[in-house]
Amino acid sequence: MAKFKYVARDSAGVKVEDEIEAPNQAAAVQQLKRNRITVLSITEAKKSLFSFSLGKPKPKASSADLVIFTRQFSTMVEAGLPVVEILDILLEQTDAPGFKIAVTDVRSAVRAGSDLSTAMSKFPNVFNTLYVNLIRAGEASGDLDVILKRLATYLEKNASLRRKIISAMTYPSVSLLLILAITVFLLVFIVPQFEDMFSKLGAELPLPTRMVLAISNTFLYHWYLVVAGVAGFIAFVIISRKHPRGRYMWDQLNLKMPIFGELFQKVALSRFSRTFSTMLRSGVPMLASLEIVASTAGNGVVEEAVMASRDAVRQGESLGSPLSDSPIFPPMVVRMISVGERTGALESLLEKVAEFYDEQVDAAVETLTSIIEPVMIGVMGVVVGFIVIALFMPILEIAQKI
């Protein structure tokens, strides 16, 4: 497919300049004519020799950009504006370079006659599977404005959930880095001064002191081993998370972590319930909804459980039964899903589950913040206290002998 730049007039007589993808120039002109666009001039877009060296940004969007885009899109669709005109307006106020590239190409494809969902599906890093399928459902049902509103609300609540997780993880992460920094400072700058003094004394050192000195020497004289070990561990985590089985094991480990495991479970249940409810409310079939929910779950354990439920539903079984086999889904959630299936109110009950777990996440974040502070202070006290006691033990022993 080649790109062609064209100058034309649309059905309203307004002059437009844009790009279109087509196998050749004749096919490009035919596509534009089918959309009642009168071509004034058209030329093939030449690729710049410096496009690679200039580092053209990749199509991508932050969650905040996508939320604003979707909310404004829904408002303008509800007001009755044509999709191409809406994309023109949104493109003018889009500042992020990567997002601008995606919106520009989507606008060109729609103007050339493509469906909005098909145009968006070319940019999975910007518009994921859930987004594209909801847009497709809106186009098919004629309720694009309603589904865009629903999608904007879903994205806003997901962004809010993400902010809560970041808030919960920030304090312990900063505290842990501070503890590591203080420990390294003591081992590299303070402990070696005591080592010189101990060597002059010539006495046998206690085991804790020998341990601290050995760790200090490792940081001083074999620092490359420490760096290699840290780099190796980071590489192992990254590579193992890219493998399906490794990702599943890490996600399972996250759910079993003390203090944080319960929070991660509540976040996963909230995301599952809201995504599933949004898909069903928008008219996406059950099997397709379950597949999309699994792919966007963000947790391998949830994904495996949802896919098992999808296989069971395909064979004519109920949805709740396979979910009950997974430890991540509490009996309350399974019961509500089973009741929703029987009564035909599954999407509304899932929404209630999502709201319940949103409140639970709020409470868990507050509790976590109050617990983490004394825990981190205790850890810092133990680490620093152990080093200090280890350094003063030989001095105290000598003082006792004297």
What do you see in this structure?
The structure is a single chain. The protein is mainly α. It folds into three domains: about 45 residues; about 90 residues, Type II secretion system (T2SS), domain F (Receptor-associated Protein, Up-down Bundle); about 240 residues, Receptor-associated Protein, CATH 1.20.81. The chain is about 75% helix and about 5% strand. The protein contains 16 helices and three strands. The protein has a three-stranded antiparallel beta sheet. About 0% of the residues have low confidence.
Sheet having the most strands:
3 strands, antiparallel
Distance separating the two termini? 90 Å
**How many domain units?**
3
The first-level CATH class of the largest domain is given as Mainly Alpha
- Average pLDDT: 84
Spatial arrangement of strands, main beta sheet: 2-1-3
Helix content: over 70%
The count of DSSP E runs of length 2 or more, i.e. the number of strands, is 3
Rg calculated over all Cα atoms = 30 Å
Q: Which homologous superfamily in CATH is the superfamily of the largest domain?
A: Type II secretion system (T2SS), domain F
Uncertain segments are: 48-54
Fraction in beta strands = 5-15%
Under CATH, the topology of the largest domain is which? Receptor-associated Protein
Summarize the helix and strand pattern as letters. Answer: EEHEHHHHHHHHHHHHHHH
The total of helices stands at 16
Secondary-structure arrangement, i.e. CATH architecture of the largest domain: Up-down Bundle
Strand pairing plus helix content: what structural class? mainly alpha
